[in-house]
Amino acid sequence: MDSQLEVNFAINPSKHNTGRNNNRWKDIIRMKRLDIIIFGATGCAGRFTVMEAVRVLRSFSWGIAGRNKQKMNELLQDVGFRSRKNLSKTPIITANLRHKRSLYSLAKKCKVLVNCAGPYETYGENVVKACILAKTHYVDFCTESHFMDIIHYKFDELAKKKGVYIVMGCGLQSMPAEVGINYIKNNFNGTINSIDAYVEFWTSNPWLLGPIANSNVWASLILAKRNMRRFRRRLLPKMDPIAPRRSILSESDVIIGFCVPAPTVDQDIVDRSQLFYWEEKNQRPIQFNSYFVFSNPVIALLLLSWYFIILILTQLTCTRRLLLKCPSIFSFGIFTSTGPSEENVDDTFFQMTFKAEGWDKSVKSTQHIFPHPPNKVVIGRVSGACPFYGVACICLLVAAVTICNERSKLPHRGGVYTPGAAFGDTKIINELKKYEHGLSFEIISTDEM
């Protein structure tokens, strides 16, 4: 049945097909696969990903894919000039998001497909399906929580059967949180009950701050907020003591500043990872909360007010269309159709500070129940430069490289996973440290309570 599904998806023979066309498809299938292909290369995110790929993928065979061959040629010439590399022999594959045969043909040409073509709720499902049927691994930037649930429930079993890894959410909004939690776990030397993450962004010249991302990122955020269900959160078992969530506006006790709950997808993705560790490895799930930190409480309140207004507008079809049509107006110029300039990308920074509370190794539990409150606190940090298109692209590419290099350390033999679940036993943290726009990890303090 699976083979028939593959034929229907990829070739869809009709009365107009000829033997020559069938032979062409057979030739495509026989071609030697590249290690990695970057799909959506001429988009804003894809362009920055290709720039980082020159360094990250130097030991791999790789190519780019998109709809317009001329634009891809121009992109390679520009990136080659900037990096002082000859990219003229880099393979170029034309593919169209709306054509299933085109996507299947693309997936057959590589071992790992890096998908930069969003928004994923609109275009992503057929790409994932093509990869599974072509037995090609897949990573993306996806921030649409509900869409991740759809992909998991539709394709997890098929991906396991085919031996394919689908790892979604490998960009800025989840990878630093996921690998940061795993880093803290590896250095805690005990059992963690809860982690609070405090996220800060800043620029070296705030008066010249322009757009930080393009309209596709905005569309992904709007589509993600359209559906507010969190079924993964409800499935997590309740663990005592329950970690309290801070009020809407509070002063941080870890770093200097005022914090508000972070309206990002990392909360849902971390919950999915913790559910995996609970069900698959019988590890006590970590209670996770994330916050944005600001030096000025007024700015924090303005951001929160803006977020709630946008959240309300996403729930109505007419206002949602207006949000998608006019990203620059509703985001005050932060998201535009042209995307950020390289100067804006280079002048931004971020750090995520983790406060982990739990029990040291000497405290024993009975069925994950501890006799007294947490007695240990570890504070760690993950930081990086150029977060929106530097760190994000490095994380995505390193995820693809990790699948190539450490497939035996990934769970099971395939399936749909979050980054924390997929890469928990790998050396991805060491790989992320290697690059200028990668991530830095440090333990700040360890204290007994």
Task: Describe the fold and architecture.
By secondary structure, this protein is an alpha/beta fold. 44% of the residues lie in helices and 21% in strands. The protein has 18 helices and 16 strands. It has helices at 2-10, 19-30, 44-56, 69-83, 100-107, 120-133, 145-162, 175-188, 215-226, 231-235, 266-281, 297-313, 317-325, 327-330, 342-346, 387-405, 419-422, 428-432; strands at residues 34-39, 62-66, 92-94, 110-115, 137-140, 165-167, 190-203, 213-214, 250-251, 258-261, 287-294, 335-336, 348-360, 376-385, 415-417, 440-448. The strands form three sheets. It has a seven-stranded parallel sheet with strand order 3-2-1-4-5-6-15, with helices on both faces. It has a seven-stranded mixed sheet with strand order 9-10-11-7-13-14-16. Strand 1 (34-39), helix 3 and strand 2 (62-66) form a beta-alpha-beta unit. Helix 3 crosses helix 16. The radius of gyration is 22 Å and the shape is globular. The protein starts with a helix and ends with a strand.
Distance N terminus to C terminus? 58 Å
Number of strands: 16
Question: Given the C-alpha coordinates, what overall shape results?
Answer: globular
List the strand order in the largest sheet.
3-2-1-4-5-6-15
Low-confidence stretches: 13-22, 24-30, 229-233
Characteristics of this structure?
alpha/beta; globular
